[in-house]
């Protein structure tokens, strides 16, 4: 890592700030000593210009539309890898050898069941509870079940917690789904791979055989790979911030799930599908495009735009291909929602407003259509995102705990409230 300096004129003095270069990507002006040296804070709502940490996991070039995990392009991983291979890569930093992969698959597979007592936890929720609400609660509750993996100072326990989370998340997600639709829970089947096992736990019923369709399992796998990590996004930053206080990993992941739920983040795939069905027909697209451009209308085209990508989201391209594979396999030829999606994408990509603001379709634009075709209700979409993102969250959490520069995350503020004043008794107010 090379070092140069930047100069800041402030308070009549010139301050030298270290400039650090990563292996690739923009340089970073190190302001860690700014307050000590100048008495001033920086102000950056939404952290648009702030690197909150050093990381070697994921690299995004939003202008070029590039996404790399540990250096490997996402399209190559999605095309040739399987999800657990990507999990290994994110957690350990390198692609596994055959022996390492077999061992890792075995270790994850052995942890797919959840403590039987956890099944009782579900019945405390209303049947019509949103599955993400159930996920926040049940994943947080893992810390009450697996005490032997909550000592974050022990590397072995950290890895056991990581593997438990990767392994149990699909089981908990499938249970949330089954509870939501009133069907009995289906236990994991360890002879199946990660994605096929998940489809099995969601769609099998005890009264008949269920054979997982390999094309659909591969599509599920790809969806998991595409969502596995995305550097310091809102939910990952939430996990890191929660973890920076020394909280246990299960509680931190529950915090990440809560953040992911929002429609500006993981909730967008659900919102995108709701929007496509609300548009309903290609004839109504201009009306919605006009609304999206209207400053006085809070409506936004869901599945469009991204904080980092100012080019086509590389994941959206793969997702679009996967959508067509799934619809082809299921013989869905005329999906009105797909027609609306394709036409909406075409119009938006040629519209001056979207071009000027660099608003391209993001991954959520196509993932909703695919998940619907796979048989999931919209309420499950963000849950599936959480299943996939768990490995990213836990890899980032581990990296943070193992970083010697790690300190509790504690941002400062620009205070604009009342200055000091005396308390007034209620009778005199
Ligand atoms: N439709 C219409 N206009 C938009 C949209 C949109 N989807 N997204 C951004 N804009 C406009 C926005 O009004 C603003 O215009 P102006 O400069 O005139 O005020 C400009 O583009 C910049 O938007 P911003 O809100 O400042 O950008 P941001 O980086 O803060 O927000 C975003 C990024 C993803 C929250 C936003 O684009 C959005 O709300 N998109 C729809 C929701 C969505 O699809 N989210 C999924 C993100 S990808 C998966 C994930 O992260 O989980």
From TrEMBL:
What family classification does the UniProt entry report for this protein?
A: Belongs to the citrate synthase family.
Active site (record annotation): 306, 364
Please give an example of a GO cellular component term from this record: cytoplasm
The organism's superkingdom is given as Bacteria
Cited NCBIfam families = cit_synth_I (TIGR01798), PRK05614.1 (NF004126)
Put simply, this protein is called Citrate synthase
Keyword vocabulary terms for this entry: Acyltransferase, Transferase, Tricarboxylic acid cycle
Q: Which GO terms describe its biological process?
A: tricarboxylic acid cycle
* Pathways involved: Carbohydrate metabolism; tricarboxylic acid cycle; isocitrate from oxaloacetate: step 1/2
Catalyzed reactions: oxaloacetate + acetyl-CoA + H2O = citrate + CoA + H(+)
Output the CDD domains linked to this UniProt entry.
EcCS_like
Q: Which GO terms describe its molecular function?
A: citrate synthase activity
Q: Does the keyword Acyltransferase apply?
A: yes
Keyword S-adenosyl-L-methionine among UniProt keywords: no
